[in-house]
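User: I'm writing a short methods note and want a consistent example. For DNA repair protein RecN, I'll paste the sequence; you return only the structure tokens, no commentary, since I'll be parsing the reply automatically.
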Amino acid sequence: MLQHLSIQNYAIIDMLEIDFSRGMNIITGETGAGKSIIIGALNLILGERADISSLVNKEKKCVIEGHFQAEGNELVKHFLAENDLDDPTQLVVRREIAPNGKSRAFINDTPVNLSQLQSLSELLVDLHQQFDTLSIGDNNFQVNVVDALADTHEVLTDYKKSFRLWKQTEKDLALLQQQQLQFEKESDYNRFQYDELAALNLKENELETIEAELKILSNAEGIKNTLNRVCGELTEGEQPITQQLKSLSNLLNSYTGFHKDLPEINKRLQSAQIELSDIADELERLNDHINYDGEKIEELNERMSAGYKLQKKHGVQSTNELLTIQKELEEKLDAVLNIAGNIASLEAQVANHQKKVLALGEKISQARKKQVPAFEKSVNQSLVQVGMPNARLQVSVLPQVPANNGVDAIEFLFDANLPTGQAGKSGQFKPVNKVASGGELSRLMLCVKSLVAEKMDLPTLIFDEIDSGISGEAAKQVGIIMKTLAANRQVICITHQPQIAGKADAHFFVYKELSGEKVKTNIRQLGTDERITAIARMLSGEKPTAAALENAREMVQN
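Assistant:
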């Protein structure tokens, strides 16, 4: 519900404040007074693109602000949560246009983009103007209307869930089938590469170990000579180093009692002698294990050459990287064997989901088709009431490939000039947005919405001069339909028809006034006597007659 609308510096509006009521709000005024300017300003907070030419004062910014009461609206609550916006009981939507043309939008003082603003506005306001054909001609709206009347919500929810599962499983199956084709193309080559690696049967870090071992074997003679020489210097020969250290230790030991530091130094000398003796033993052990083996060198060289060739082929630098490639190839080969079973399983799932979708779709289709004749009859009766006796609506329900909204292609067809007594025989039924005029579409939309108002969660309904071209009884019936709509939701209507104005719960009058040297638009809510006078003027002119006043009084009181 739109509770309050504030407009500053827009077109010929300097400053305007409107407090709307629940129920039916009527806006009247002379042609050119600025009624549609108010709707233009409202459009800005509903996400329409801004135009700097709309600024009255080029040195001040334009500010449009709307206060909406949206408590209990789950769709609005979900939108706010999705966009990380506060969830208060009242929503404040603001649009600012700077003198340089830059536009900014806010929801509860949080900056938002136009897309977010438009998404929220669709949940808050349904604005219908002449020549606005989007809603009534939109296929989603048409389907939603039929579904609301057919009460398909629960089964449609199940259908959409099954449809999503079906399509996702089909997508998974197609991906798996594509993988299978790719695997089959690569299978022979992968098998060759795997067999090549498996035949070499490498162990972890094997090539690096071979390289180290070859260095030892290739230099075995030099290593053994060096070890023999070092070992001989330490333990053999005329003056072995270990024996010299032992003699020096014995010599120093004779004087350890004469200085406090000598015992520790002698102990270190003895440790050095023991350590060198151990080193000599270790060198001798190593020497025993190092032997030149030409046959083994040839064998290791061949294996390392084979390993390096595979490294170069696969563009890697280590044994472990080759082993990783071998494992990946093994997994691909296993996948070829397993994928056929997975595909069979998915094919069965696809068939089951499709079967369920078709069954639910047929159930929804039957409910829709059952509802269509009554809907057509009610709309066509309403069209007669609103001054379109030769107009007819026809709902086409044809089978289609299962889609998100069912197995039916639903389209509203319209003929505005069906000859009397030839219902259904003119052959002129065409999509509504291609054959209906702005006024016809507006009244058709009113008739449709009046039928589904109790079934669909419609937001605030705003009608901008949809009564153009009608008068008398037709205008009265339009007023009655709007009044019925307003029983459970807010309706705001700009009208020139006294029969409609008389149905108001709140009547606002738009007028021009001279402020200094400028003409400005203003608005005020009328009291009962003012309403009677305003409606009487709509009936008979600027100076209403007594009969017009009496007629206006009867309209207001009834």
